[in-house]
Inverse folding.
């Protein structure tokens, strides 16, 4: 009985998280479109190109990082959490690990451009990670 309740609660929480992530992805995509349109308004062609390149680089690095973590750790960890062998906090640590990897791979030049354009780059990277996780889940 307790296992059934645990499974139901896990399923409900997964459904709610998926729904929230879908909404987040929608707004992240709107935000990306806004940033891209703002980048097009930048008068300097060189600066505009650098912003567009930085956004594409962030997207590429985030995609590859999230896929790598999913392949090496996340899938098994989610099963361990579901069966009660691991803590949900360990999944949150994976998001922090992804953030750190992406931040390190972007380097100061891209981070500087993105910060100047987007402002809160940390939040933007976190939202990008969530969007990539959701995209991957929807593709499965």
């Amino acid at each position: 009985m307790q296992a059934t309740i645990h499974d139901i609660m896990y399923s409900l929480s997964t459904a709610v998280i998926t729904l929230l992530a879908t909404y987040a992805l929608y707004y992240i995509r709107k935000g990306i479109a806004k940033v891209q349109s703002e980048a097009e308004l930048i008068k300097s062609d060189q600066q505009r190109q650098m912003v567009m390149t930085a956004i594409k680089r962030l997207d590429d690095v985030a995609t590859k990082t999230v896929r790598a973590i999913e392949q090496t750790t996340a899938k098994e960890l989610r099963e361990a959490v579901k069966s009660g062998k691991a803590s949900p906090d360990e999944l949150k640590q994976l998001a922090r690990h992804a953030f750190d990897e992406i931040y390190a791979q972007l380097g100061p030049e891209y981070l500087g451009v993105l910060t100047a354009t987007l402002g809160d780059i940390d939040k933007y990277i976190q939202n990008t990670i969530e969007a990539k996780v959701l995209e991957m889940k929807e593709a499965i």
